[in-house]
## 1
Amino acid sequence: MRLKIEKRHENASTFSVLLMSILSVVVSLVILGFIILSLGKNPIEAYIQLVSWPLGTIAGLTQTLISMMPLLFTSLGLVIAFKMKLWNIGAEGQFYMGAFGATWGALFLFNHISNPWIMLPLLALLGAGIGAGWGALAGVMKAQLGVNEILSTLMLNYVAIYWVNYLVYGPWKGAGSYNFPITATFPKSAILPQYTANGINLGIFLAIATSFFVYYLLRWTRFGFEIDIAGDNPKAAEYAGVNVKKMVIIVMIVSGALSGLGGMMQMSGVLFRLQPNFSPGYGYTAIIIALLARLNPFVTVAVAFLFGGLIVGTQQIQLFLQIPFSLVNAFQGLLLFSFVAGEALLHYKLRWVRA
Amino acid sequence: MSDIVLKLSGIVKSFPGVLANDHVDFTLKRGEVHALLGENGAGKTTLMNITYGIYKPDEGEIYVNDKRVEITSPHRAMEYGIGMIQQHFSLVPSFSVAENIALGLKESKILPKIDLVRKKVKTLAERFGLDVNPDSRIWQLSAGEQQRVEILKLLYMSAQIMILDEPTAILTPQEAANLFKTIKEMVKYGASVIFISHKLKEVLEISDRITVMRHGKVIDTLQKEEANERILAKKMVGREVVLKISKKPPKPREIELEVKDLWARGDKGPYAVRGVSLDVKSGEILGIAGVAGNGQRELAESIYGLRKYTGEVKIGGEMMHSLGVVSRMKSGVAYIPQDRKGVALCGGLPLYYNLFLKKPFRIPEFYLNPYLFNSSRLKKPSEQLVDEYLISASSLNLEVKYLSGGTMQKVVLARELSLNPKLIIAVHPTRGLDVGATEFVYKTLLKARDNGAAILLIAGDLEEIFTLSDRVAVLYEGEIVGYSKPDESHLEEIGLMMAGVRRVKK
């Protein structure tokens, strides 16, 4: 007997896709359970805590929504790029650059503007614009020189992160920060409307609105149609009159702009001051979110919400059970692996054959 | 021991929609150079990939030195002394020549003895006239030199049966001459060589025996002495009457396509189209005959605006710019490329997308609002096309990659012809199709002609050219070497021109 891998000759049904997604979560949870067990903790108890706090309490739910916001912006940006099979790994850097842009605007460029309805759109434009530029850099290199976008976007992340570090440790260190590497706090006009004392802000709703925008872009415009074509077969796209190089650059611009907007929202909506390592890897988690959502903007909202809950829940079990926070990373890694494995099973099937 | 080192018997291999090898028999004698001649897509490479263990045949047997063998992998093939140099080399660019050769060795355990390898490589290189420095890195070498490294690899492993797949395609004439010297030298030392090519001249120069393949079948095996270019060209492009299609006399009108002194480079650098001038009138089919690889694809791509060129292309009296696909589409040019799967279709997208790949925003009759467009709007017109062009698919949502070759071509035809194009460029429109699908393509093209389209038909199959064309031009090494009439009595003349023996300049 021998295991044979065969290609499937039909499209995978929605049901099997759904089943695959659920199964990959279950498989990751089981493996993660063994890791928790090896730490000498009870995985069942951990999982109960993991779910009950972020989803079962008002305070937890609020926190979940707040951590969903940056995840949603970044993963929506990636959905667009991944649709064209442009593997933008740079959401993290584009997010940082957006935050940088917002801080620059709020504290230096427009600090004399006191009307938030003028200030906030300006910051949004600046954040999205600088994020877009960061994405465009990789896009232009890919289109003109054939530089692999995976490498360029990944490396640009480090440039962005260290650029922000340089600013907050150096020239932008705030006056009242007691020598901590933190900028001054944003002026009132640069802060997004807050609806509750614990941080529900406009950014969360804008993030959800953005998913409708991305859906519109992908499903209702010529741009989306050409992304589909160029993503599936660039040669056929050229043949059909699509300028693929131009598309690569534009898609990277839009993708970077959304992540940059996320960075701005995080600054103006949640943190109000730039500090080093203010993102626990949102831009990387976004990769998993976009893939798990199978590049559907609405499903992305749901998956980003669950991942927000995961982050909040893990903080909780870290407090109560002394389980390290890096478990989140382990879980994300496991998810990605089982998802990729499941994806392969959608296209191939395994069969026992007699040798 | 008999002098037959390799025998393939009744090899059958099919891919979805294509029968690549149809009961092929082939023998290789010790110390001979045996050429496998045929057009691209005739099944030569598939046959050799089976011999080298890359594909598994559906049916048939392989004998090495009269012993029945199962070749399940290239590794296994090497154990039987079979080595193959594929068109795409398998070398590690950042490694040196010696290191690359050491890589494939069985005897090397964890750390190969590079010094030993280097010494042996040097002696081999000298003996066979393969001038390569064993210490150079692969990325520093030209394509010709890299090929020498591949040959050295085979020699090092003392392969007895060497398969060279289109080895001269990447070589300059001088390099090719050197390669031939090396091949003769290798044969002297007892190796046997299978030489895959579609170039008649070099096949006649290097081989002892020649097997001609067409449409996955062996047409004939000839001794070199019995062969000449004309005979080979005829066997290669074929003259089988499969389909009898009646056509009305043409009614040519004004000139639709005018090409003047067009030069275009091939993918590998040198000019593939060398000063072609031609014109096609509305209501006629100009057939371009020629052995594949003589600039056909490059010519078509230039006219369609996909390839950079110098010279003039006028469509409907209007001057076109190089690299302007959209302007061609707007002036009503349809293009049926030879590689439908790779160029004309998006395999991962549903059928109804593919039927309208280029229309919604670029074709004036269509012009959908680019900001309020939903692809589901394409479904209704798609249904019409599916009915009209008899496309057999289980659903409009089916991804095109699951369709058969013939159905794929129908999808391309439906898309390209449904808007009554003024000019149709068709390259090998029936390659890989069965008789039914071929007939459908012929009838569709003739109908388009009768409706007043100008058609530029590029094909290798003379039968196809004769069935469809109203005039025939022959393309040889990127030049039009002459024109002829598409009927029996001119067959020999066309064959001679295709072989580059005769030129009839207008």
Note: The longest strand of chain B covers residues 4-15.
## 2
Amino acid sequence: MAETREFQVFRGDRSGGKMETYPVEVTPGMVVLDAMHRIQATAAPDMAVRWNCKAAKCGSCSAEVNGKPKLMCKTRLDALPADRPVEVRPLRTFPLIRDLVTDVSWNYEVNKKIPPFTPKPGAVWRWKQEDVDRVQEFRKCIECFLCQTVCHVLRDHQKQPVFNGPRFFVRLASLEMHPMDGLDRLEQIKEKSGLGYCNITKCCTEVCPEDIRITDNAIIPLKERVVDRFYDPIRVLFRKIFGSASLTKPE
Amino acid sequence: MWWLEPLAVALGLSAFGIYSFWAALQGDHYAWGPYLSPFYSPELFGNSSHALFGPPPSWWPAAFSMFGVELHIPFSPAFLILWAPLGFRGTCYYYRKAYYRSFFQNPTACAVGKPWKSYCGETAFPLILQNIHRYFLYVAIVFIAFLTYDGLKAFTREGPKDYVAGLGSVVLLLNAFFLAMYTFGCHSLRHLVGGHLDSFSDSASSCTRHKIWSGVTCLNERHMMWAWISLFWVGFSDVYVRLVSMGRIADLRIF
């Protein structure tokens, strides 16, 4: 006989809403997204859920499961405590559209402000594996925005106007560390992306479904490059004496 | 159970902080024969045979005046050096995460609400000073050299030419090893040895740097583990040397 579990799902829109309880018949191997689909099929056909690939590659089905930002398609029911209902809420950081669907378009606006990859003049288009490895990790990002929603700078302090968030530090790192990229991005990273607001508490790394070491491999290396340019007194002095090309990326 | 980890970190750091403050205040029982407590190493001035520059300095004030209250703090060699490991750990990227979560509740845990409304991160004083971490790293590397010397010297318990391994010798050598694992996995070091390069393959030196960077990265991936092991062991080393020095336990001869 199939087991039945209770799901409490947020239903509502910007004007308000509440948690609705749905009993769902569950089978071995089910994930939270399967349960949402079963609710749609049996009890609430009008429930809004964004999803696409069901393979943890499109980044569409982000939600907060039992209070933690997760991909619903990657969250197995047998990994959640069986003694209490499974709570499913929309991402808290972004404006709600309806039910489990939020408006994440702010992220795309931030993305537009980052100057695209700009090759160095006369760059030799030949890579070695050790150069590929470092920036390859950042290409794994599926833009699920779980890191954005869990980041307390955006979630609790609404610093969206001055802080780009972890997803875009990953993008900035992929460009800043790119061997072929010729743009000097440190001024933008320090002044416009709001890197200094990050206090490296690593929540972004904890929730990343692609296991990108966001803090260690993107944010902290960027912070160190900013220190090189703006905060290291010896380097600043050295540059003043010997010129700007001595200790920085060529501009 | 989201509160369990920040609580454990707060208790661990508090216990270490209280003990190390107490141990630094003692100014006594920090050395026994060739053993020197890591809280007191390098001993710049002091009464033990390890002191590099002789006895306690005459310029140490008899009393400190603070808010109209006179504090009589006897000289302890630890006061002259503990700022360095404190600064290194205090500005360390791992410990920043640990104490921002556990003490400042900024945030206490992921996706958990916080009691503070205003926030400026590390953009303003005093937290903007975290950016000087690499300077503490430079000092920490010098300290590793001293502690390694202490660890090796600890094998000369029965004279400079008689190599004897006491339990304390192993404790002090392990202390230097654990601290080196923590220090050489530092995020700033990772940047300085090669992380700042955009290409690891465009010259012979950048290939060498890539190898060093990969080694530091390997340690960096376990930076938290080494941070805790080395923190515990440095405290344990002090306890061991203190107890041997006070005659409460006898140093076990291994070979």
Note: DSSP finds ten helices and seven strands in chain A.
## 3
Amino acid sequence: MMSRFREIAAVFLVAAILYGMQRTTPLYSEITSLVPAYGEQGKRIDARAFAFAVVNVHLARMVRTESFGRTQDFTTSGVWVLIEGAAEAKRESLTLTTANWLGPSGISYALSQRFSILPGLLPNQRLEPGLPKPVLLAFEVPESEVSGATLLVPRNYMTPLDEEIRMPVTNIDTNAIHAAITLKRSTVGLPWILETE
Amino acid sequence: MMGDVAPRERRHYWLSLAALVVILPATVLASSWDSLMQWRANHYRIQISVERQAAQRYAGADWKLSELTRLPGGMPEESVVLVEFEAAVDDPAILSKSPCEVALTDEQGRIWKPVFLTEPIVRELHPEAAEKQGCSNFAFEGSSKGSRITMAETFTVPTAAENLALSVTVFGALPDYMLLK
């Protein structure tokens, strides 16, 4: 009698395990999603193919670009997040074409392409092994998505199981949003000059 | 319960279990065989190492690295490397049809791809090289047996990089590729 009861219990247990496994099966896209490489703001973060570091994070209501004698104003109903950093390829020349600002609500914002002609912008900067290059990233996000965000920099989104740098943006002063930031071309040192107002 | 089972049956049971150890990996291998072969075709390469100034037969031509020039780059730690190389065409069929890829490598195995725009310093100091085309099937379009194609590519590398060599891959000649030292 006891062994019969045990057999029935075993069948139920197996059924419960199988049901649980069926419900929690990850999607193929999740299994092959990017492998995160975590790092801190202000420090060099190493992935296998590239390294990345954030130097400054600026917030502004407006971005003004001055390029070849032409001035343009870029207003926003949210906030501009401008990130000055450095990046380096490690094994092979590459270009980092994308980056995302993952807000605290879980919404992800892609790089702004509104002033794509400026030198030094991440997708414009060809990275070579052994030569760290200054890079500039610009995001346009709602004010509520500024604090508690994470910066995501993947090598690309195409290759399964490729790496993605994830850096929580911890050092950011949400009370100091500049009225305007001016970006100019520069021929010496950094490829851009950033002036706050 | 197990006491009722005949020893023969029990042996079959363990044999079946042991067979799983072999059969499961074999199944995985059999079902992924095509992908494995595809991966091998994409990644398997045989290097043909060529010493400086020597000519090497590859993809229907005789290749030679004629000049590797280091020029100052935009930053102190940066060098511009101009590589001039040539191919004496013997059989234009492969060359004019398949893509050609070049890269600069160093002793640490780092790989630099050619720059998109010719560096200003190359145009200034080596204008004749700046006019030369890169390695591509266009370079060989219309070439015939006996013609000599001169090519040049520019790279940006750290000044500290040593033992630079040019790797040339013509896709029609895979898995072979050349490393011109």
Note: Chain B has two domains: 2-43, 46-180.
